[in-house]
Write a structure and sequence with these properties.
heterodimer, A: alpha+beta, Beta-Lactamase, four-stranded antiparallel beta sheet, 6 helices, B: 434 residues, mainly alpha, two-stranded antiparallel ribbon, globular
Chain lengths: 206, 434
């Protein structure tokens, strides 16, 4: 009678099947990682900080161009047409901040993955005061050091967001004049160069 | 004799019920499927279930926007969905998701439906604006249910109620009773070229047209523009006695668009039978019950005297208190004075002056004053008519008070307002600004 040599546990049918599946999974992972593009390079993804910075660069540039080459030129330099808050009634140009908010609204109609807002601890419209902890912390942070953006994450509704806050500096006399003169403005002593609030950029993470 | 088996009876009953429901569904008016009466704004089109209901999706937001998006855009909607899509509003949306029309406007529930088809409690503003007293001390003692009912705020359209507008136009609040409407511009969407005016002898009808029709047409703006019978009725074998509204729309597109958006034309827009006074919820004259509403109901195409459409056409059907009081109203007096030539054109106030207002529209690449043919466009809520209608002759403060006085409206503004809207008093005038 021959004694059966005990088989190593990893040679059982179940173990073989499990090992096979694991091997396939590892192979598939390797193929995915290496074969994601025809060049065999792996997409690194964009860190949310970099993405938010890039979005802010675009927003800031667009608003600067509008303020400098449309509003300041046509209103202050050439006297062609004024800019005012009630621009439809007055048949004038929208203020740069209004252009920014309209653009944010238009973006919101197209995607819920990215949003942006212009907020302030001293808003003319109270709806533009900070409402979340990240907004509070971000506006405080950029007021203390305008050169350094604030980054954080927050959960709003059932979604996790990366939230970045950038200082909104009074670069145009129009900003200062309007806020200091507005009946609903809680602060009337802004000067050029002051941090008037912040631009909040949100990116959905999941 | 044996009685039929219960199973057979049940089967026959089920088949009969299915056949009846199927037959009902196929009919133009599927009233049997209505879960309850529709709101005043939708009852005319309630037979077309699929205008609002998408199979397996209920009432999709797009269905509401198909009809109302343009109006909300023009209103510069104070609570636009896109504003609330910003995630920072998530906490507010958890209380009241104002991005969806059906949150506030639920159909087929007449027992809870208030003005403007709102089915929320009247104090719904408090969900998000409970702390308004902190921001505006003048508002501390106001009851939340009065935000939108006191002539101060509207949920969607605040173009004529916002602070700057009140500040600019509300100072003093002196009642004024003089002014005039802007002058209408004759403009059509097609280029008729250099057609010469035509006269009765140029009528190109098949020959059996009543002489008085050709005579009326010969002195109309149509004939003066060189528009002959066949341009509307078709020529030769294509002749039709009563051209469809889209024939009118081929030249009068802006007017047609407004008409189809209002309660007079919304059935035609939905490819249903035209509206009839018999189907109206407002009191109508019994003799008008069999009429149907298309362009020709108000405008005789052969005698295009718009003065008829401005009053007589309206009062030929409408018999509610406001309408029947018109003849004795100061507005009617001013209208008669204008018609008799005693006063300047535009100084009278017909039904159309208020309900079919002269508004600015961009047509053909230029701003033009045209008649808005959606008679509901400025009516719900009525503060919409402040700018384009009332303030042509009256001060903002007086107009606000008048529009807030329902009894005065019922008397067709015979008398002075018994109510006062306080919002004008709360706003500092521009001179007080720092």
């Amino acid at each position: 009678m021959r004694l059966r040599t005990p088989r190593p546990p990893w040679t059982s049918r179940g173990a073989v099947a499990a090992l096979t599946l694991a091997a396939v999974a590892i192979l598939a992972g390797a193929v995915t990682a290496c074969g994601g593009s025809t060049q065999g390079t792996r997409s690194p993804g964009i860190p949310p900080e970099a993405m938010a910075d890039a979005i802010h660069h675009v927003l800031e540039s667009d608003r600067t161009v509008y303020a400098r080459h449309v509003v300041n030129r046509l209103q202050d330099e050439e006297g062609v047409i004024a800019a005012s808050e009630q621009w439809e009634d007055d048949r004038t140009l929208p203020l740069p901040a209004q252009m920014f908010r309209m653009s944010a609204q238009l973006t919101a109609e197209k995607t819920d993955r990215v949003s942006y807002a212009l907020l302030s601890p001293w808003p003319i419209n109270s709806r533009n005061a900070p409402r979340t902890e990240a907004e509070e912390a971000g506006l405080e942070s950029v007021a203390a050091d305008p050169s350094k953006p604030f980054y954080g994450t927050e959960s709003l509704g059932d979604t996790e967001y990366f939230t970045a806050v950038y200082a909104d500096i009074a670069v145009s006399p129009a900003c200062v004049t309007c806020h200091n003169a507005h009946a609903d403005s809680p602060r009337n002593d802004f000067e050029l160069g002051d941090t008037m609030g912040g631009v909040v950029v949100r990116i959905a993470l999941d | 004799m044996r009685s039929p088996r219960p199973t057979v009876v049940w089967l026959l009953f089920t088949l009969a019920a299915c056949a009846w429901l199927g037959w009902s569904l196929a009919r133009p008016r599927a009233a049997v499927f209505l879960p309850g009466p529709s709101s005043d704004g939708h009852h005319q089109i309630e037979a077309a279930c699929d205008l609002c209901h998408t199979p397996f999706r209920g009432v999709a937001q797009e269905a509401c926007l198909d009809c109302h998006a343009e109006e909300l855009e023009r209103a510069r909607d104070s609570h636009a969905a896109a504003v609330f899509s910003d995630p920072r509003n998530a906490a507010d949306l958890a209380k009241l998701d104002v991005r969806l029309c059906v949150t506030c406007h639920t159909e087929h529930q007449p027992e809870i439906t208030a003005a403007m088809g709102v089915t929320l409690q009247r104090d719904f503003c408090v969900h998000c604006h409970a702390d308004i007293g902190d921001e505006r001390p003048t508002h501390v003692d106001f009851a939340p249910a009065t935000c939108a009912s006191g002539g101060c705020h509207n949920f969607h359209d605040n173009r004529n109620l916002h602070q700057d507008f009140l500040a600019r136009h509300g100072a003093g609040g002196v009642a004024t009773f003089e002014g005039s409407l802007p002058t209408r511009e004759a403009w059509i969407a097609v280029d008729l070229g250099d057609r010469a005016p035509v006269s009765a002898v140029d009528a190109d009808s098949p020959g059996n047209a009543a002489p008085e029709l050709a005579e009326a047409w010969a002195s109309s703006a149509h004939a003066a523009s060189g528009v002959a019978c066949s341009d509307c009725h078709g020529g030769g074998a294509d002749w039709i006695d009563r051209p469809r509204p889209d024939v009118c729309a081929s030249c009068h597109g802006a007017e047609s668009t407004g008409f189809l958006a209002g309660r007079h034309g919304m059935r035609l827009a939905a490819n249903l039978e035209p509206m009839s006074p018999a189907d109206a919820r407002l009191p109508m004259r019994p003799e008008a019950a069999s009429r149907t509403l298309d362009c020709g109901a108000c405008h005789d195409p052969h005698d295009v005297d718009v003065r008829v459409a401005a009053v007589d056409a309206c009062l030929g059907c409408h018999a509610d208190d406001h309408s029947t009081a018109y003849a004795e109203s100061p507005h009617a007096g001013a209208w008669r004075a204008e018609l008799s030539g005693e006063t300047a054109p535009g100084s009278g106030a017909s039904c159309a002056s208020c309900h079919l207002p002269r508004t600015e529209a961009r047509l053909g690449g230029a701003p033009r004053i045209v008649v808005q043919h959606n008679q509901n466009d400025n009516l719900r809520p009525n503060e919409k008519m402040l700018r384009d209608v009332c303030m042509n002759c009256h001060s903002l403060a007086f107009s606000l008070d008048a529009l807030a006085d329902r009894e005065l409206i019922r008397r067709n503004f015979r008398g002075l307002p018994a109510r006062h809207v306080e919002s004008v008093d709360m706003v500092p005038s521009p001179a007080d600004a720092p």
